[in-house]
From TrEMBL:
Positions with biased composition (Pro residues): 199-209
Pfam families according to UniProt: Excalibur, SNase
Basic and acidic residues bias locations: 261-276
Domain TNase-like: 63-187
Compositional bias per record (Low complexity), positions renumbered to this chain: 52-65, 210-221
InterPro entries for the chain: Excalibur_Ca-bd_domain (IPR008613), SNase_OB-fold_sf (IPR035437), Staphylococal_nuclease_OB-fold (IPR016071)
Recorded superkingdom: Bacteria
Record-given protein name: Uncharacterized protein
Gene3D superfamilies: 2.40.50.90
Excalibur calcium-binding domain boundaries: 237-273
UniProt organism field: Amycolatopsis japonica
Amino acid sequence: MHTGPSRDKRMPRWMMIVLAAFSVLFVLGAVFGKTPQPQQEQPVAAKSADQATSTPPTSSSTAPSTYRVAEIVDAGTVKVTGPDGEKIVRILGLTTPPNTNGCFAEETLTWAKNTLADQEVIIRSVSDEAGVALASVSMVNGGDYATTALKAGYAKFASRAVEKTIGTALQAAEDTARTAGNGLWGPPCFGKIDTPPTSVTPPQQPVAPPITRAEPTTKKSTPPPAAAEPDPPKTVSYANCDAVRAAGAAPLYAGQPGYNRKLDRDGDGVACEPKK
């Protein structure tokens, strides 16, 4: 039995159109898939960085760092400790006497110890060869070490691996030492440091004859003759007081020549007194 008007339960037309459009897009996406994107090439700088990481260079220049000198191997080689641990450093621009048999080696090693031992230094590493860093070393408390050593004559200049501007200054320092005859440029090495010094006998100097001095013409004064010693006193003896008076010796006192107790009747020390 029909109780009321019938209702149309179909979907609205606009909604059917939207669903149909989504269905078409879904089918197209499933059929054709995602459009592949072109692969971008890796930047050249990145490739260079990767290659640098995989194959480290044998030579490089690093920023200056502060180290402390732990040991003096020789005047041109030191062992240091710093931010990257412990390492051996060969100082650029120097050739030093061998420690075993080199001329001026002992003096050079002593000077290096007094100058660098337990000191802080600034090192700019240039390259690394078999675990030994070739580096420029500056002393924190003053000056470039290589320049100081060359100017004082404790090393010779070696141009290997030294920049041109630095090498010019080092060569000038060596020239100064050579001209002044400082250190190894003076005797007995005269710049030869690879062998011990040879003893050189100095030439014999002619001996000058002794100088004969002329005697002065002034006549020497003759010393005065020594005073004649007095004759020893003669023994005087008087027989009596008359003899004493006759000799003019009366009276006689005790101790005088001729005094005799027999002539002194009253024993007062006076003999042959004048008659009263």
